[in-house]
UniProtKB/TrEMBL annotation:
Record key words, sorted: Membrane, Transmembrane, Transmembrane helix
Stated name of the protein: ATP synthase protein I
Organism: Actinoplanes teichomyceticus
Region (Disordered): 1-20
Transmembrane segments: 33-54, 60-84, 91-113, 125-145
Length: 151
């Protein structure tokens, strides 16, 4: 026996469904990354400087690390979603959700280890994450609004 039920219809010869056309220029999905990376680098430098003035080298490292975590996290999500949308738009939701679950799980582990440690830069790390999220989200919202108004 081949393991296939005789009542099951053969589906191998059916045509594939039509896929929606790809956008003419998919670069718009990542064109904001250069500007956001520049803003994030400026925030990283400000966070490191503020951390150093407030609590020394550990606080500087923590604040800069928090901003860096957010920058890498958001950049990764943008790249994964943009890639999935250019390959096959139906992949955007599953890959986007997988990316979010993976990165927030990793962020949760990093913050849980940081909170339970005796490292003096842990408060600055948390503040750096908060600053990174607020600035990245604000700048991305501004960018999208600016781009939408341009069109």
């Amino acid at each position: 026996m081949s393991g296939v039920s005789p009542a099951a219809p053969e589906k191998d010869d059916l045509p594939l469904p039509d896929l929606p056309p790809l956008p003419k220029d998919p670069r718009w999905k990542v064109e904001h990354l250069g500007f956001l990376t520049t803003v994030s680098f400026a925030l990283l430098m400000c966070a490191a400087s503020s951390g150093f003035l407030a609590g020394g080298a550990d606080a500087a490292l923590g604040a800069a690390g928090g901003v860096l975590i957010v920058t890498v996290s958001h950049t990764l999500t943008t790249l994964v979603v943009a890639w999935a949308d250019t390959v096959r738009p139906a992949l955007v939701m599953p890959l986007g959700m997988f990316t979010y679950v993976a990165k927030y799980s990793l962020l949760g582990i990093i913050l849980a280890v940081g909170v339970s440690s005796e490292w003096p830069g842990k408060t600055a790390l948390g503040l750096g994450v908060v600053a990174g999220v607020v600035v990245w989200t604000g700048v991305q919202a501004w960018w999208v609004t600016r781009r939408t108004l341009r069109k």
